[in-house]
Amino acid sequence: MTGGGIVDKIIVVLNHVTPEFVVNEAVGMPYDTQPSSELTSKVIGIKKHLSCAEHIIMNWHVVGASRLELQEHMRHRMASPTVKSTRYTIDKDFLRDYALNTEDLFVTPDLKNLPVEQAAILNAHLSFSAVSAIRAIKECKHAKIPNDYIKYLLPESLRTSFSWTINLRSFINFLKLRTDKHAHFEIRHVANEMRRKISESLAAKYVDELLNQMGL
Ligand SMILES: Cc1cc2nc3c(=O)[nH]c(=O)nc-3n(C[C@H](O)[C@H](O)[C@H](O)COP(=O)(O)OP(=O)(O)OC[C@H]3O[C@@H](n4cnc5c(N)ncnc54)[C@H](O)[C@@H]3O)c2cc1C
User: Fold this and answer.
1) Which domain holds residue 188?
2) Which pLDDT tens digit goes with each residue over 86-129?
3) Residue 3 lies in a domain
4) Are 190 and 69 in contact (CB under 8 A)?
5) Which of 1, 28, 106, 127 is deepest in the core (most CB within 10 A)?
6) What atom in ligand 1 is closest to the CA of residue 184?
7) 67 DSSP 8-state letter
8) What mean pLDDT is predicted for residues 155-165?
9) What domain count does the chain have?
10) Which of 178, 188, 195, 196 is catalytic?
C-alpha cells in the first residue's frame, strides 16, 4: 500500500440533471410570467426562495468510495440512494487475486499529512487488515458460510458504489456541510468532486451559475 488512493480511484459521475426549462416554468408560475433564466436566477440565486430549487433533480453515481464515506453520505436523508449489495458482490470482489494490489478493493487514506512514523505504523496496519480480511473471507467462502454472515468481516475501508438522486435544495445543504474543513476528508473529496462535475457539465451550467451566486 502506498497511500493516497482516494483521489485516484473514486469516480463521481453526474448522470443527469433536470433541464433548465423545467425549473424556469415552475419559477414563472407564481408570477404568471414568461419563464426565463433571469427570473430563476433572481428567485433562487438572489432571493433564496429555496423550495423552487427542489424542482432541480440531479442523478449521481459514486464509484469506489469507502463504506466509511457511504455511511456519512447516507446521513443526508433528503436524497434517494441505491447502494451496491455486499450480499451479492462479496464473491465477485473477494475471490479475485489481490496478491499484489489491494487498493482496488479498499480505500487507503492519503497519509502525507501524518508524521512519517505515524504514517508508517498506520500503513503497516492497513496492509495487514486488508490482507487479513481477504484471507478470512476466502476461508469462510471455502467453508460455504453464507454471505450474510461473512459480511461481518468487511472493514469500513471496503470500496463501494451507489447511485444518489438529490434535489438542489438538499444538495446545497450537503455541499455546505461536506465541503467545510470540519468534514472528513473522504466525503469532502466526494463533495468537491460533485461541485467540480457540475462546473464542467454543459447540462448543469445553469446549476453552476446558481451555486456561484450563493457562494458555493
Ligand atoms: C462535520 C460533521 C460531523 C458530524 N458528526 C456526526 C456525529 O458524530 N454523529 C452523527 O450521528 N452524525 C454526525 N454528522 C452528521 C449530521 O448530524 C447530519 O446527520 C448530516 O450532516 C446530514 O445533515 P442534515 O440532517 O442537514 O441533512 P438531511 O438529512 O438531508 O436533511 C436536510 C434538512 O432537512 C431537514 N430535516 C431532515 N430530517 C428532519 C427531521 N426529522 N426533522 C426536522 N427536520 C428535518 C433539516 O432542515 C435538514 O437540515 C456530522 C456531520 C458533519 C458535517
Assistant:
1) 9-213
2) 999 999 999 887 665 788 899 999 999 999 999 999 999 999 99
3) no
4) yes
5) 106
6) 1
7) H
8) 97
9) 1
10) 178
